[in-house]
Structures are given as structure tokens and as C-alpha cells.
């Protein structure tokens, strides 16, 4: 059957075990959901994802606290990434039929002096730090200096990102965004080719009370080709972006985009979309799992966020119509029980539901995240490319 509306939710960084090529990324042993379950010792309560078939994805090694159910109400499986990296941009682009085949620029020892000098000359401000750092640690360690001097805190991570942190009372958001836009303009091509420039504003009186605000803004590379979002929009369908989806695709292929302040806010907007009359695709990213808990290696907070999401998922499931299709997945892993602070190369869960389903079954291991976008296109009878394989015909 064809569905009038498709809802896609990316639970950012919620991996489900090391991918087959994890050794290439030094991520053997990574297991985001598995390690969170172990941390909670059977008290991780995810009843809605459980009944969709979350642990049925790996019945021989179920997530502790999440049962393998005899009759799941959804289809379940996992997807493998074929992009060369494990950044959010790579994952989302691949979902929409545009895998990243050319490696992005990584700077594990900080950015070249000539790039920093250009940012300093444009901004009229001195740059400090310029090395890999935890986002919360860097403002704790350098935030007071930044407030006193007006310098720019520039740092990176294991991903292809250049992040600029500044106190909102010292450098106004408009100025910070302008600086980031300039940095974006000079890092599109080699030798830099940086995936994302991220504005990281923070507030607070001192290092023990600094907090990063929801005014974060990602300046991603423009998509290097047509995505499934472009194809849907060109076909006259609604494409509703919730959260950082708009940033990741630089606004391409989107008919309506909304910024969010939290996972809860993102789900509220998704639920609001389900209450609208539209025909097309609602695409949501819930970034808190990644930004607030994965990178900070906080399994307790990560588990609490998963349980809060699961509760709101129940609210969404209750209002979906028979001609609605829900697809839940992730863009990479970020195991809070693993070493380091970076993303982890993992399979990502695939949960698919409609109130019209008779029974849920396994969708197996999907070769590429692109199967997600291919299925959405297939549903709306829109031509795509050959990156992904639709699983629409497998849904009964």
C-alpha cells in the first residue's frame, strides 16, 4: 500500500553494535544501546520501542531491559553505512541517497596556521585553543578567558568539524554566525573540506555554571548532488524538517523547517506535524542523545533521554493514522561506554511502523542507510537513484 505521510525520526547517535568495518575506525567493541542497557542493569525501560521490535533486531544479544517480543507491532532490522566517515552529515546524506565517498578533512592536531589567521583577520579577534576538545570541557577551561578577552574558542573533534565557542554576552549571536559563515566559505574545498562549521554559544557567570545554549547553528557543506529530499520537493510533496535537518542539508529539498531546542521540543514538533494535513515526508533529528550524552560519555543521562523519548514516542504512535508510516533510525553510533569522546562506527537500528500493519517481521541487515530514502521515494512513486533498495514491498 501507499502511505499519505511518512515520518522519519533520527535518534542521533543511537547505534546498535559495531559495524562490519568497525576495525577501520578503531571502534571494535562499540555498542551504544548494548552498553547503556548494561549500565542500567535491566532497568532501561523502553516499552514502545520494545514492542516495535528493538531487541528483536539482535535476539541472541538483546538489549538488557528490553525484551525480545513474540509478536512485534513493527518491522525491525539494522542498517550499515557505506559512507567513508561516521559524521552526522555523512549519515543523513546517505539516508537520502547521497553517500559521502570522498573523505572529509580531519584535523586531529588542530587547524593549520593559515586557516586560523584568516579567521582572525576576518573577525578582528584572536583565536585560542585550536585542538581537539570536549565541548563542555573547553568552555569550562577557557570560557572565563574568552569572556575577559573576547577571543574565539576554536576546537575540533574526531569528526570533520570546526567549532567556534563564544559567550553570548561577549560576542552577539549575529556576529558569531557571521564569523562561522566566513569560516564555512573558506573551508568548502581541499585542502580543508570540512564537513561542518558549528557555532557553539554559551551563557553563564563563571566556569562552574557555563552552559551551551540551543542557539547552536551548523553550517554544513552544501550537498554535492541531488538528494531524495530534492526529489520529493520537485515532485510537489511537502518536506517538513525538524531540528538540525535543515542545517545538514543547507535548506535544500525542504519546504518547511523548524529549529528545536531539545529532544522533547523536536518530538513536540513531530507530533504537531502528525496533527497537520499534509502529504509528504516529515524528517526529524533528535540531537541531544549525541551532543549531551554520547560525546560526554554519560550512559546514565543517555538512558534517561532514551526513556523520555520512548514516552513521547507512545504519544506519537497513538495519533498516527492507517495511511501513515513511521521510520525510526540513527545516523551513527556514539557509545557512552566506549573509550574517547567521538562517534562510533556501528550498525543503526531500523524500526518501521504503521497502524495498518498486520504483524511485524524482520527487514534483516540493510546494505546502506540509503534504503531509508529509497523506501520513501518508492512510497510516493518518485524516481531515485540506485544507491538504496526500497523495503516498501516487504511491509504487509
Automatic annotation (TrEMBL):
GO molecular function, one term: magnesium ion binding
Residues where Mn(2+) 2 binds: 290, 295, 343
UniProt keyword Metal-binding, yes or no: yes
Cell location: Cytoplasm
The EC number(s) this enzyme carries: 5.4.2.7
GO cellular component terms, semicolon-separated: cytosol
Free-text remark on how the cofactor is bound: Binds 2 manganese ions.
Pathway this chain belongs to: Carbohydrate degradation; 2-deoxy-D-ribose 1-phosphate degradation; D-glyceraldehyde 3-phosphate and acetaldehyde from 2-deoxy-alpha-D-ribose 1-phosphate: step 1/2
Sorted UniProt keywords: Cytoplasm, Isomerase, Manganese, Metal-binding
Gene Ontology annotations of biological process type: 2-deoxyribose 1-phosphate catabolic process; 5-phosphoribose 1-diphosphate biosynthetic process; metabolic compound salvage; nucleotide metabolic process
SUPFAM superfamilies, alphabetized: Alkaline phosphatase-like, DeoB insert domain-like
The protein's enzyme class: isomerase
Residues reported to bind Mn(2+) 1: 12, 331-332
Domain Metalloenzyme: 4-382
Catalytic reaction equation(s): 2-deoxy-alpha-D-ribose 1-phosphate = 2-deoxy-D-ribose 5-phosphate; alpha-D-ribose 1-phosphate = D-ribose 5-phosphate
CDD domains: PPM
ATP-binding among keywords: no
Obligatory cofactor(s): Mn(2+)
Family, per entry: Belongs to the phosphopentomutase family.
Role summary: Isomerase that catalyzes the conversion of deoxy-ribose 1-phosphate (dRib-1-P) and ribose 1-phosphate (Rib-1-P) to deoxy-ribose 5-phosphate (dRib-5-P) and ribose 5-phosphate (Rib-5-P), respectively.
Protein name: Phosphopentomutase
Organismal lineage: Bacteria, Bacillati, Bacillota, Bacilli, Lactobacillales
Amino acid at each position: 500500500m501507499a502511505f499519505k505521510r511518512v515520518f522519519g525520526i533520527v535518534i542521533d547517535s543511537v547505534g546498535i553494535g559495531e559495524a562490519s568495518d568497525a576495525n577501520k575506525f578503531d571502534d571494535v567493541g562499540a555498542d551504544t544501546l548494548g552498553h547503556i542497557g548494561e549500565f542500567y542493569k535491566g532497568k532501561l525501560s523502553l516499552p514502545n520501542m520494545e514492542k516495535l521490535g528493538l531487541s528483536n533486531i539482535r535476539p541472541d544479544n538483546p538489549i538488557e531491559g528490553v525484551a525480545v517480543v513474540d509478536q512485534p507491532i513493527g518491522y525491525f532490522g539494522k542498517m550499515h553505512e557505506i559512507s567513508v566517515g561516521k559524521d552526522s552529515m555523512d549519515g543523513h546524506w546517505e539516508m537520502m541517497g547521497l553517500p559521502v565517498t570522498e573523505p572529509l578533512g580531519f584535523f586531529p592536531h588542530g587547524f593549520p596556521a593559515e586557516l586560523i589567521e584568516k579567521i582572525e583577520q576576518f573577525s578582528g579577534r584572536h583565536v585560542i585553543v585550536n585542538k581537539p576538545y570536549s565541548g563542555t570541557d573547553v568552555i569550562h577551561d577557557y570560557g572565563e578567558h574568552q569572556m575577559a578577552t573576547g577571543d574565539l574558542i576554536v576546537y575540533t573533534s574526531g569528526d570533520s568539524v570546526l567549532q567556534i565557542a563564544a559567550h553570548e554576552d561577549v560576542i552577539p549571536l549575529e556576529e558569531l554566525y557571521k564569523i562561522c559563515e566566513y569560516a564555512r566559505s573558506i573551508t568548502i574545498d581541499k585542502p580543508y573540506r570540512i564537513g561542518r562549521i558549528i557555532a557553539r554559544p554559551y551563557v553563564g557567570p563563571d566556569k562552574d555554571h557555563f552552559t551551551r545554549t540551543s542557539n547552536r547553528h551548523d553550517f554544513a557543506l552544501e550537498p554535492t548532488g541531488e538528494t531524495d529530499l530534492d526529489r520529493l520537493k520537485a515532485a510537489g510533496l511537502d518536506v517538513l524538517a525538524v531540528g538540525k535537518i535543515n542545517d545538514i542539508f543547507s535548506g535544500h529539498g525542504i519546504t518547511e523547517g523548524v529549529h528545536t531546542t531539545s529532544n522533547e521540543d523536536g518530538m513536540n514538533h513531530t507530533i504537531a506535524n502528525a496533527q497537520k494535513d499534509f502529504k509528504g515526508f516529515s524528517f526529524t533529528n533528535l540531537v541531544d542523545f549525541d551532543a549531551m550524552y554520547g560525546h560526554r560519555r554519560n550512559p546514565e543521562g543517555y538512558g534517561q533521554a532514551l526513556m523520555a523519548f520512548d514516552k513521547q514516542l507512545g504519544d506519537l504512535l497513538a495519533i498516527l493514522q492507517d495511511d501513515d508510516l513511521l521510520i525510526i533510525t540513527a545516523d551513527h553510533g556514539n557509545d557512552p561506554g566506549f573509550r574517547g569522546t567521538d562517534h562510533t562506527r556501528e550498525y543503526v537500528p531500523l524500526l518501521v511502523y504503521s497502524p495498518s500493519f498486520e504483524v511485524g517481521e524482520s527487514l534483516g541487515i540493510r546494505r546502506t542507510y540509503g534504503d531509508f530514502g529509497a523506501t520513501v521515494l518508492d512510497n510516493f512513486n518518485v524516481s531515485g537513484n540506485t544507491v538504496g533498495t526500497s523495503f516498501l514491498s516487504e511491509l504487509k
